[in-house]
Amino acid sequence: MNHTTPPPQSSEDQEDRSPKFEWDFHISAVVSSSVGTISDTLGVIEVNSLGTLFATGGIARKIRVYTLNGNPTCQINICTPAKLSSLKWKPLSAGKTMGSADYDGVITEYDLETQMPVFERDEHSGRRIWSMDYSHGSVVGASGSDDGTMQIWDPRHDGLKSVGKVHFGAPVCCVEFSPFGGALIAVGCADRKAYVYDVRNMVNPVAILDGHQRTVSYTRFVDDRTVVTSGTDGCLKMWNIEDHDHSLIRTYRGHTNQRRFVGLSIWRNQGLIGCGSESNQVFVYDKRWGEPIWVHGFEPEGGTRSEHGFVSSICWSQVGDDECTLVGGGSNGVVKIFSGKRKTLTSIS
Questions:
Q1: Model confidence, pTM
Q2: Measured between alpha carbons, how far is 131 from 279 in angstroms, rounded to an integer?
Q3: Distance CA 48, CA 278 (A)
Q4: What CATH architecture does domain 18-348 belong to?
Q5: Which CA distances in Å does 93 have to 75, 110, 153, 316?
Q6: Mind spelling out the 3-state secondary structure of 32-88?
Q7: Is 213 exposed, middle or buried (0-12, 13-18, 19+ CB in 10 A)?
Q8: Distance of alpha carbon 260 from alpha carbon 88, whole angstroms
């Protein structure tokens, strides 16, 4: 794998580039799918805002919703007409509605109580949708597709055309509205760049993040000024989107990612970054240091690492301060739940 020369280190990095291992992690639960093969690869995991439930979707054409606390049990099992690439809990629905995006280019909302679809739209001409998200400040949603567009749509108007569209000329791999409200949306593309737009003015981006050598597969907000991007060049990058130059703050390396979607999630409370790897491992980075602070193999306990397996989806629960929960999914359909706890000052020293 080829890397460009790392950018100059910030003063923070120059002072101390060694990660401080402030967290202890351990496996708290394992959930095995009924299939347990590549046909059940998990493409997405989403934890609800209360940190009590998580949903999975992927190749098996099922939305499964599990309890997160204690011994995870499957509460909902919805069969879908196509393979799933993205799931999102709909804001302001009291956890009763979930949106999905699929390989057939369709956005569907499901009522989780009746387990029936209540909204459907197909504005990507049947091309695969890689990502969808909901705005936290309004009712609109967004989707990005192989057709090279990112579209903004309003689920209150079934069958109407999108209320906003941007053409990129390359597949759109990720869309994420700022979880802090406001009007920003981050977009990752196969043209090796990420873009940040203000949805009130979709003509010109407010930031272009140009630094990856291959496809940008994920974009995630750390806070209202900072975005982390993931590329199939095997690195993560953190950017300041507020300054004039949209400067690169830090590059994170350690995981392996050349051709797969391996997941990216930020625990915003404490600035921890989780991602998967084609080495079949989970990686956790602290946003302050470019080296991982924790790595865990995803092979069966007591087993050997698979040459073909990979970690395909990652999601933090946003609940907690000194304790955290990370949910990871593998290419074999297995889910592992990790619990983390901040070390005491005595154990750190």
A1: 0.90
A2: 24
A3: 26
A4: 7 Propeller (2.130)
A5: 18, 11, 17, 21
A6: CCCCCCHHHCEEEEEECCCCCEEEEEECCCEEEEEECCCCCCEEEEEECCCCEEEEE
A7: middle
A8: 21
- Contact (CB, 8 A) for 103 and 115: no
Position of tokens 């979707």?
57
Q: Could you list the pLDDT tens digit for every one of the 349 residues in the chain?
A: 333 333 334 434 444 566 777 899 999 999 986 544 446 899 999 999 999 999 999 999 999 999 998 899 999 999 999 999 999 999 988 899 999 999 999 999 999 999 999 989 988 989 999 999 999 877 789 999 999 999 999 877 655 567 889 999 999 999 999 999 889 999 999 999 999 999 988 999 999 999 999 999 999 999 999 999 999 999 999 999 998 889 999 999 999 999 999 999 999 999 999 999 999 999 999 999 999 999 999 876 555 555 578 999 999 999 999 999 999 999 989 999 999 999 875 555 4
Q: Residue 318: which of 231, 248, 226, 220 has the closest Cα?
A: 220
Amino acid in the structure at residue 113: E
Residue that the structure tokens 């393979």 belong to: 83
Structure tokens at 114: 């009746």
Chain centre to alpha carbon of residue 76: 22
